[in-house]
Amino acid sequence: MGLGPSIKMTSLHHYDCPVTKRLIADPDVDFIGIIENGVSENYDAKVATAVKTGKMADELELDGAIVAIDGWGNHHIDFVSVIEQLGIHDIPSVGLSYIGLQGRLVATNEYVETVVDFNK
To answer: Is 23:63 a contact under the CB 8 Å cutoff?
Structure first.
């Protein structure tokens, strides 16, 4: 593995993730689950997926969310669109991104307030 994301995150990655394990084990956190989305090359599909994710999070009555991204560039549009839809539904979120701050997000919006970089 290199210094950056060299493979796409799988479902197993999310369930074995140390952050997920800490959230599940924390008695003060009511961990609901993980919503996984694919990344489309089509802008309208990106927005549609983000809208559906925001609605699902709202219906689950989430108090907050962590949004993770495993790529950069075009993937940033999906990333910030999901954060935006969560914000529209008054669900605060934190973004986890590889080089989201060290580099620069190619897209942003008023709801992208907290992004934490992670590196392998």
So the answer is: no
